Amino acid sequence: xxxxxxxxxxxxxxxxxxxxxxxxxxxxxxxxxxxxxxxxxxxxxxxxxxxxxxxxxxxxxxxxxxxxxxxxxxxxxxxxxxxxxxxxxxxxxxxxxxxxxxxxxxxxxxxxxxxxxxxxxxxxxxxx
Length: 128
Fold this sequence. Notes:
This protein is an all-beta fold. 0% of the residues lie in helices and 46% in strands. Strands 2, 4, 5, 6, 9, 10 and 11 form a 7-stranded mixed sheet that branches. A hairpin with a 6-residue loop joins β5 and β6 (58-60). The relative contact order is 0.31.
């Protein structure tokens, strides 16, 4: 059974850092584009960052550009999201998603509709 599992969330003070990980089991993540998304209470899901299968193409949402960094280690079958200079407004459940249908091919996207497989999410809370 294919699973995506996020980890690395937690409580951090404003200005701090966290590194989230998205690990896949049952399928090699290296062949697929992956995106990170987040959803805060009472708000719609928004995009964070996305990376193509080779790691050569990366996109960031304006809200995280310059503070967040997405990367992948295909040997570990894992995609990471490094979050620096965290703000209280970054508080949300963070989800990773994979394009297992390969709709994106060698590209990537921050459009959640392009992703068909989602993890359960990890909570990130940033205190002021």
